[in-house]
What we know:
The structure holds 2 protein chains of 2 kinds.
Chain A: E1 8-11, E2 17-19, H1 20-49, H2 52-57, H3 62-133, H4 137-150, H5 154-168, H6 170-173, H7 176-196, H8 201-207, H9 217-230, E3 239-249, H10 255-262, E4 267-268, E5 274-275, E6 279-286, E7 289-297, H11 314-321, H12 327-339, E8 346-352, H13 354-365, E9 369-376, E10 390-396, H14 400-403, E11 414-418, H15 437-448, H16 453-464, E12 471-481
Parallel strand pairs in A: 7-8, 8-9, 9-10, 10-11
Antiparallel strand pairs in A: 1-2, 1-11, 3-12, 4-5, 6-7, 6-12
Chain B: H1 2-6, H2 9-42, H3 57-98
Amino acid sequence: MSGDSGLTISGGGSYAVASDALFTDAQALEAVAQQLAQAVHELGRIDARVSVALLHRADAPVSALDAEAGIDSAVRLLDAAGSRATTIAAMLRLSAEGYGRAERLGERAVQELAARLGYGVGLLLLPMLVSVVLPALPIAVATVVLASVLAPGWHSRVPGAIGAWLSDNNRVLTNPATVALVRAGAMSIDDVIAGVFRVPPAAVQALGDEGVGIVGLGTSAGFFTLVGSRFGLLSDGPVASRAVVQRDVAAAPRGLAERLDRIPQRVRTAEGGRVGSHVLVERYSQPGRPDRFEVYITGTADFSPVAGAEPFDLTSGVTGIGGLPAASIDAVRLAMADAGVTANSPVQFTGFSQGGLIAAQLAASGDYNTAGLFTAGSPTGQIDIPADVAVIELEHTDDIVPALGGTRTDYNAVLVEREAFAGRETPEGVAVPSHDRGEYRATAVLAERAGSDQVGAVVDRLDGFSDGATSVVSTSYVAQRR
Amino acid sequence: MILDSLLPDAVQNHAALLAAQAALSAQASALAHLVRRLEALRRTVPTGDADFRWHGAAHSAYSSSVRELGGRLDEAIAVAAAAHLDSRRALTAIDARVR
């Protein structure tokens, strides 16, 4: 059915991790076992209709007695086949559970190792590096000043140059091993910082992700925004959202791909400006019921570390990972308020990349009556969503962006993973092709076709949210930092 | 039973024949339906060829397990189908005697 989809499914309240094909087979075997049990029961009723005594009284032919013996034999065989199906299904589930637990243990071991290494880097290597770099600092400053005089604006070309190099060598980033390193690295930044400040190792371990988790990825992101703000980087500010387009829509979306299609896109024009909206809010109305809302949130539109008018930028991304009030999150809150979403309004969120991070933050905030959440390529690993929310998240194992969110802590969310460029060439000129929206759309289509119940159940809940709506009105919003 | 004992043997045999005819007819029909259902169910048993990203012995053990399950089910279906044929055969014979 979906044996070659390449999808790995996990979560849904279980430790089990396995391919969609394995879960599909386990379900098929469980269904077979259930049907066989019914067949055995039915054969018992069939058998009871004809008694051997009656056949003797009627002087029935031998074939009638053969039929009775055959039924008894069929009951035994079907019963044995049912037990066999149950056992195989249980073994499959156990293997998925065992694999999931082993993977979790492995993740934890890697995290602990990365934390120790990070602490060592912060404690020993960084001071050494500083002692080497410091004497050369005057020369570096002089070079920068000279370059600014000779080639004004050179620094703005640096990110472009890095981007161009990455585009030419995109296999470096589009690689599950790199992604695993990035994830471990993201989780150990707090340990590097602790090493630099010579915090006692025992305290680091006790307070960090490996201990009670008071200090972690969020603290690191907070640290960067604090330090960055002293140099004019990652410095967030107030934001405003305004509605730009309102229109009637034929129907609410069905499935995951249609939801991804509704996420607005903010793109740069040839003249350097930006077009498109950031947030789209759909209002589903039905007489006699409170209005329900689905909120679609775009991803990062500007990768400059210097905060400008564009609120969906790197600054918001880092602040958002830190769980701090990012401009992009405020922009969505303002758009929702303008669209009429209250604390009691049933709401679902769909977001791509940073949009998914915002969606998860809002769903986890408890400020909204959240029914569902769908994210694609979003760094949401450290965000715990309430268990009663239907959550499905798509991640490419060769996409570094979700890895920036660290290791996963929420096992209620159904996670659908796929290696986007497994066994095929990456396109030229794209730095992170596995983060492409089109690639996530392809994964969404595969997920919709997945045979495993975990995925189907969440998609059904997301689709059921708008059931009965008699009118769908969508409003697009554009946000700007003030 | 007291009433039965007062009836002549021929009448009692005919009544038993009619009862057996009705019971065998219902049994044959139910068996035919069940065999069709089991044949449909057989098609839903996994083939064991799906790619779980497992390697070596684990996957071949799984494949042979589901193939064995399929074999057991085939055998059960064959036995149930034979029971159905036997019921039909007995019914044909009883039909002839009732007429």
